[in-house]
Specification:
Strands 1-2 form a two-stranded antiparallel ribbon. It has helices at residues 2-5, 10-23, 29-38, 43-150, 154-168, 176-243, 250-269, 276-279, 283-294, 298-317, 327-350, 357-379, 385-404, 410-441, 452-461, 467-471, 483-502, 509-537, 543-571, 585-613, 630-645, 651-673, 683-701, 718-729, 732-738, 751-768, 776-802; strands at 447-449, 476-478. It is rod-shaped, with a radius of gyration of 69 Å. The protein has 803 residues and is an all-alpha fold. α12 packs parallel to α14 and α14 (410-441) packs antiparallel against α17 (483-502). Belongs to the SEC15 family. Residues 50-219 form the Exocyst complex component EXOC6/Sec15 N-terminal domain. Residues 412-760 form the Exocyst complex subunit EXOC6/Sec15 C-terminal domain.
Amino acid sequence: MAESGEGPGTVPEHERILQEIQSTDTACVGPTLRSVYDDQPNAHKKFMEKLDACIRNHDKEIEKMCNFHHQGFVDAITELLKVRTDAEKLKVQVTDTNRRFQDAGKEVIVQTEDIIRCRIQQRNITTVVEKLQLCLPVLEMYSKLKEQMSTKRYYSALKTMEQLENVYFPRVSQYRFCQLMIENLPKLREDIKEISMSDLKDFLESIRKHSDKIGETAMKQAQQQKIFTVTPQKQNNLKFGKTMYINDRIPEERNEIVLKHAFEEEDENEEEVLTVQDLVDFSPVYQCLHIYSVLGDEETFENYYRKQRKKQARLVLQTQSNMHETVDGYRRYFTQIVGFFVVEDHILHVTQGLVTRAYTDELWNMALSKIIAVLRAHSSYCTDPDLVLELKNLIVIFADTLQGYGFPVNRLFDLLFEIRDQYNETLLKKWAGVFRDIFEEDNYSPIPIVSEEEYRAIISKFPFQDPDLEKQPFPKKLPMSQSVPHIYIQVKEFIYASLKFSESLHRSSTEIDDMLRKSTNLLLTRTLSSCLLNLIKKPHIGLTELVQIIINTTHLEQACKYLEDFITNITNISQETVHTTRLYGLSTFKDARHAAEGEIYTKLNQKIDEFVQLADYDWTMSEPDGRASGYLMDLINFLRSIFQVFTHLPGKVAQTACMSACQHLSTSLMQMLLDSELKQISMGAVQQFNLDVIQCELFASSEPVPGFQGDTLQLAFIDLRQLLDLFMVWDWSTYLADYGQPASKYLRVNPNTALTLLEKMKDTSKKNNIFAQFRKNDRDKQKLIETVVKQLRSLVNGMSQHT
């Protein structure tokens, strides 16, 4: 009834819900059940009733099925019980079989395990081999690196490091040994840098020590090359050199010596030529440069190298204080500098960028300024011309060597011109000593010639020509003394010495000719002239020697034109060339001759003074001796003999000397009369003095030197003559009356002189004539003397007022 009471729409709804519950997954049943509660009131109760009814239906169906299959189940159980017995037997058999199988499989298991283990080992070995094949090249390269380090092949070692880092290490970077190797490479690089830098320092120290040997070799090669180039030219000029001077053997001998030396040098030139590479191992520089280039630190290396070389340059340019004393000091200085720059030039040409041309030029300019300053300072201390010449030769070789390596050396050749002036100065000093020795050894007498051989030997050395002398028989004498040919030879030797310095200076023949002429002029005008003047002034040179000196200078003056020809033959520059310098020998020897003439006059006067000092007059004598004084006769005899020697002098010189001697004698005699220490003079003494003056006048009238006109020489004694005549004649009236008249008889008598002498005679009259006041004549004479003295004093006063 209950079921019939339900609405017709409700029952199908509940069935639908039950069908959904049965057919839907449990997880999705929630919404279905929720719909039961969401429907009409009491729908839940109705649904439960419907659900119970459904369950009962299912139970009934299950029971029907169980009843249907119950017999089959019972039969199956029965069959199962029967099978159990067989199963137990089977179990026993299986267990036994399993036991027996296990016992039989144990050995197989052991062998299988061995096989598995071997297979694992084989696989591991294969893996190891593969990994070792990957690692072995790395290890081999690293071993190669170690070997290269031990054999000091550092550049190759750096290349090996690059290969390891770029190619090999990336393949085995996962292994620890690789990491250790990678960590060790920077240290190896630093070691290589330090070792290569140490090698470079050793190299720099080595070339500093051996730079002189390098420079010596380079300079020797440059010198040999120069000699090899110049020798053919000297061979061509040999014949000209031999025939250049017919009467001079010196040039021929010099040319032969020069050529012999040149041929010896040429033979040496055939020896093996050493280069800078043969003397120096540059591998440390190349290696260090390559190493720093590989390491990317090339700039650091360049800066270090240049800095160290600049320091070495300063050390090389330092000099010893006594360098100027020997040529070896200069040679060591030059060879070290050459060695330094030869090395730098080699580095410049075999490397790229380590040194540049600008760097070497800067270094050379710095060094050149220092070199010039050093040479200018040290050469100024050189006093030996041979040392200066050797220095010049060293500078030329030094300049030629460096010029061959491309360094500019014009300033060095300019310096040589300064040193040339100094060389000439040292030559002049040396030749001054040579000239002094020649003058000291000369006997100042004509050269005696006893044979034709002697005559030819002398004229072969000195250009002397005298046809009259050649006609004279032997023995005979040449007018000059031994010093003349010696001086001439030494002047030519000086020209040779001066020429030596001009060689290899790359100058034209015109410039060399000008140098030789200027230096020869200095020798003549300064050195020889000074020596001649000093010789003339020497106390032991007497009148005879002075006469010979004048004769010698005349012949030397004539020989100057032969010296000009001599220079012309050397330089092949004609004397007619516009700018050719002339020799100043004419003025030099003229000046010396004038000085000798003046010295003759001086010494002649000194000799006269010596004789006059021997005068011993008795100024109070009453009567003269009747003959001239002995000292005066000796003086006159001396003058006669001296003037005989003067016959070899030019006439004017002899006449001047004779006139000077007479004038000086006259002055000396006058001073003797007027001497202030002489207080009294008697008339007898005046008469005796007059006898001496007469002898002087006789000597003057005897024409001791030819060439005087009339009584010119006697006029030297005119003052004395008129004064003595005035006193001896006692012609005061005439003197006073005619005083001041051009035609006066006593025109040369000075009132002051007459007054002085008269006062001396006045005092004598007073003392010697004690009783003069008692004699009328004496009293008159005394009054006359007093009157004349007054008049003379008035004349003197008038002269002083007029003055």
